[in-house]
Amino acid sequence: ESIGMMLPHGASHPADYDAKSDIHADVRSQASASVEALFRLIERGIRPRDIMTERAFENAITTVYAMGGSTNMYLHLLAIAREAQVPISIERIQAVGEKVPLLANLQPHGPYAMTSLHALGGVPLVMKELLRAGFLHGDVLTVSGKSLAENLESVPTLDQLGAQDIVRPVGRPLAQPNNHISVLKGNLAPESCVLKLSGKTLDKGTFRGTARVFDSEAAAMAAIRAGEIVKGNVLVVRNVGPVGGPGMPEMVMLTIQLQGRGLGEDVALITDGRFSGVSHGILIGHISPEAARGGPIAAVRDGDAIVIDPRARTLNLDVPDGEIGRRLAGWQAPDPARLAPGSVHGKYVRLVSSAHYGCVV
User: Fold this and answer.
1) Which of its termini does the chain have fewer beta carbons within 10 Å around, N or C?
2) Is 192 a known active-site residue?
3) Which of 3.30.470.20, 3.50.30.80, 3.40.50.720, 3.40.50.300 is the CATH number of 181-357?
């Protein structure tokens, strides 16, 4: 919706329907309007690349940051931008997003669900506030055939809504910029990685912890359940990236286990895998290059010190460069025999790029 490829109010429709009917009336109406919009676009010769311009991507980035969206956004937008032939890099995403405050008080960092936002007025409410504050480009074309500003013209401002705490104004955000998701680099992530703080500010400004290293999600899960992970640990889960997974699985169950044991504020989780939108805590994913391609995360050992600095946007292994190099000299690539010859997995592993580029093939 924020990139202009969906009609207003379409992104927040709830998945549960009234038991007395197959589908909500508003969903039927939205579907009908979408078909009509599609035919109008065809008649006018408007194509997706006419809508998904550089400025439209900036609008999408801004809205995701303001709503506290998932780190998966980086993968999706990078891949879509490549297909749309728009020069959007992960550094560009960070440059746009680092200026945006967190406005939507939604789960997992807030108490409200997307259904609450939909009942209030949906994503257009957030976008109206962002446009009012000068964060969005109002002149971009959308699938409605109108500009973004025209789509939002009839949307009420937050002042007009009265008392509510689902969407905050820019002047009173849930969190200041750079306290939700951001892009980091360092000797553990020479290309990049993504940090999710879920609106929190680290008390000491940084997180320094002791590495506990696992080569699979299952091994890390067993250690958490056995009580082996304690405050001050940095849980390192590697070989679960695009190649190592293969397919870069989500580590959502690990974050749930940490939160359930009261460790969400005191244990960091870093991985070359990824997280879901419901993940909560001090989380770093998408570490690139990944372990399965010989990235520095492959050199981490139990007991190493790891430092996360959100302000400096760095993720570093506090080990001398020479020692990291010596460890990586003994690195061995995953056994290719783990994948069936000629399989889709095998082709994917050979062709996929790192998360830094959106895992495109």
Assistant:
1) C
2) no
3) 3.50.30.80
